[in-house]
Amino acid sequence: MIFLYVYVHGNPPPLCLPANPGDKWADFKEVIRNMYKVNPDQVEMTHFDEPFQPQDDKTLAELGIRQKSLLKIKA
Amino acid sequence: MAKKKRGLKEEYNLLTRDLDWDPTFVTREEMYPYTDFEGIKIHNWNNLEDPFRVTVESYVRIQGEKERKFHAIRENIDLLQGQLDMTDARWLEAMKIFSSVALNGEYNAHRLFQFIARHVPSPAIRFAAITQSVDELRHVQNEVLLFNNYNKYYQGFHDWKNYAHRHWLTSVVKSFFEDAQSAGPFEALVAIAFGFEVAFTNLLFVTMGATAVANRDQSYGAVSFTTQSDESRHMTLGMMALRAMIEEDPDNIPIVQKFLDKWFWKAYRAFTVVGYILDYIAPKKVMSWKEAYEMYIEDQVLNGLFKDLEVYGIRKPKYWEQTVQEKEHNSHIAALVLYRLPHVLYFHPFAPTEEDKKWLAEKYPESWENIWSKKWEAFEDPNFDRLYPGLPMVCQTCQYPMFFDEPGQPGFNTAFRTSEHEGEVYHFCSDGCKDIFDDEPDKIKQAWLPPHEIFKGTCGPAEDLANYWGMEPEDGGDYYESVDHQNFEKWKKVRA
Amino acid sequence: MANYTQVGSEAIKPIRKTYSYMSGLKVKRPTTYDECTYNLEPKENFHYKPIWNPELNIFDERRTRVKCEDWEQFRDPSKFYYATYCYNRADFQSRIKGQFEAADRYGWFEKMDPAFIDTVREFLPVLRHFVFGESVAFMHVGRTAVGTAIEQCATYQCYDELGTAQLLTRICLGLEEQVPSILQDGKQKWMEDEKFLKLRALTERLMVTWDWAEALIATNLVLDSIVYPLFFEEMTAVAMENGAIGYAAFSQFLMEMYEYEKSYTTALVKMLLADRPENKEVIQSYIKKWLPEVIEAAEEMLPVFDLPRKAIDGKLALENVLEKHVKPLLIDELQIVSSIQTRQVWEVK
């Protein structure tokens, strides 16, 4: 298990979320949808400050997400 | 009897420092194993002087008198239902926060000053420090007894010990004191005696004390008044120790500067919640956080104390400009974020009333209208999902939720800083907190961060978290829907 | 029921009496002492290890070899908390002040027998350093002892020892007219006089005894249970024989301080012995280490008993101390020692 942080711009503080690095993005993005009531497919994202465009079938690990990664979302 | 003519100072020396001797059966290193590793050089420990000249005899007499008065007041308030004199029970939300962090703070200070007394080989510091240790025991005990007056009638006090050591928010203050407890004796002295006592305690006991009195809370009024009478001695110790370190050797200056940078920033961050108390919780407000910061920190500390230290080559603490900028904003950020967390707090957050808002607009002409009133409007919208949906990310160093803004960009433009250490990333709310980590990564990385520990399972099953934190169901929720509010209104009518 | 006010037809009833965590204390009804003593010490979720001792936590039970299931159950028989400690000691200081006034009025110091002044100057100023050393040792005991109830006693003792060092200094100042260099000479004797080297060696060793329970037991059940009665009971009897009321009048204050230390330490040792059998061996090891050495140190100091005009045999004085104080405590009451012997078995009985 890893923790990662999800921040929606203008909406502090970021959430701390547990995740499994083997989880597919398709599953993880539902957490974002539930927590923030945003459509994760229609947002601009960065991983830390790098642009981030995840594919649904990739795992978090494959997308480069690691312990204490920070995803920032512009809704 | 014709006694030898002798000044008070000389007699005091015979009663204190002359008792000490240089050991010969154990080495100096064995006797004082922690004196050297921080790099502070003191050439003549006897140069330092205890300006207060308290003897055990005078101490127990003076303190005994103070105690008689304090406990008479405390018992009277209890007997006469003094809590019902308060302007509004909302003030008690401040006391809940205070008790859950200050009791632990005072207790840690009590033990820490024994460590300082034992390991700083200056007789002057030793006597002042051991006396302060005994004072701190006084403060924690008096506060425990006093807060039980509230505890008998209101929620949010009954398990301060678990709130203090287990709750996710109090780890801000727990980690502050434990950082000092785990530091060397000189850093600990600067941390608590200077960073905390000299620089910031006026806000706690003078400003908050005055606010308590204005809200007719005689209990906190009494405790802050009697505590402050000891603090002046502690502040003098802080100044004496600081002067001694910087005057004894120029090599000490950069070390002391680093301590000051760290502890000014840490204390400043930790005190954010006091802004919330002054600007929001207090039903009758006396002074805004901004005004208090200007008076006690800008005028007295940054432009007063640090001005005096300039001649020694000490400059103002790093990022002081940011603290001045933030005085417009941080109490609002804290209030807004806490408003969204009524389900995971042992006190009752709330949205400001119309009266509160009028006052805030007056006190914050620069930021209220343009920024923070708008955020409140959005939060109070019936369609807004008030409850924050999970556990917040917290800063590795100060452990506040990551809610502080990027300097110069107020309005929920959250600042993020990171550092890599041994292949792991660490997050910070500010440059100040990042610098502290970068300077001591192997220490600060150990922090017991509540959200992580909760997910790791350290705190038991998630559905049982409230219980782990020591909370009863009535502890949380909005103030205006709370049993505390209802009871206060009801009891007040009964008594009238 | 102090917190129950009946107004009109409706009552304003407290919803609870005390803090919820007080239920962990095994007492029928918590007193004020209990409320402001129990469970104050942090015990979990520590953030950082001390950089000066990273193997242990900030508060850690492993700083002593004795063990206990629940340290927080300890109760000081005197039930001192800060307020009652201050009241008690303020009264104590008033009594001391009264004695100094009496000493002034009746000339107890000026009229003291010169031979007895020579006796007092030989050891009393020396003891102020000894007591101060104990106070420093107790700064460490206070910092590292487990649980507020225990460290609170150690804190008060630390402060008391400072007070005692200051009291001894004041008595010496009372004798300054007759012996102007009494304090300077005393410090020199503490550093150089063979009679006191052993005591100083033990004091310095005590100050670096980092097992707090060892330091506490060595001080209160061994060092002080010999040194205090030797000088403030046996020597006091000698003082009376020599008309030195100025000395005798202050001895009770020292013995009262010793009684406080002894009472809480005895209660603590009893708790530890009852808690688990292994503690007995550990406590015995402390006593075995310290007792023979302290007796030896006391023997070295016995020549001071030869100095008064009406002198007594110092060996007899020490034997009295062992019979009246040490044996009843360690053999009879605590049953941690089976026999106690002086270095040479004297023919005094």
What does this structure look like?
The complex is a heterotrimer of chains A (about 80), B (about 500) and C (about 350). Chain A has one helix at about 25-35, and strands spanning about 1-10, 10-20, 45, 50, 70-75. Chain A has about 80 residues and is an alpha+beta fold. Chain A has one domain: Phosphatidylinositol 3-kinase Catalytic Subunit, Chain A, domain 1 (Ubiquitin-like (UB roll), Roll), CATH 3.10.20. A five-stranded mixed beta sheet of chain A has the order 2-1-5-3-4, with helices on one face. Chain A is globular, with a radius of gyration of 11 Å. By secondary structure, chain B is mainly alpha-helical. Chain B is globular, with a radius of gyration of 23 Å. Chain B has a domain at about 55-390: Orthogonal Bundle (Ribonucleotide Reductase, subunit A). Chain B contains 21 helices and three strands. The longest helix of chain B has about 30 residues, at about 220-250. By secondary structure, chain C is mainly alpha-helical. Helix content of chain C is about 60%, strand content about 0%. Chain C has helices at about 30-35, 80-105, 115-145, 150-175, 180-190, 195-205, 210-240, 245-275, 280-300, 315-335; strands at about 5, 10. In chain C, strands 1-2 form a two-stranded antiparallel sheet. In chain C, a hairpin with a 2-residue loop joins strand 1 (about 5) and strand 2. Chain C is globular and about 70 Å long. Chains B and C meet through helix 1, helix 3, helix 4, helix 5 and helix 6 of B and helix 2, helix 3, helix 4, helix 5 and helix 6 of C. Strand 2 of chain A pairs antiparallel with strand 1 of chain B.
Record keyword descriptors for this entry.
heterotrimer, A: 75 residues, alpha+beta, Ubiquitin-like (UB roll), five-stranded mixed β-sheet, 1 helix, 5 strands, 37% strand, C: 349 residues, mainly alpha, Ribonucleotide Reductase, subunit A, two-stranded antiparallel ribbon, 10 helices, disordered N terminus
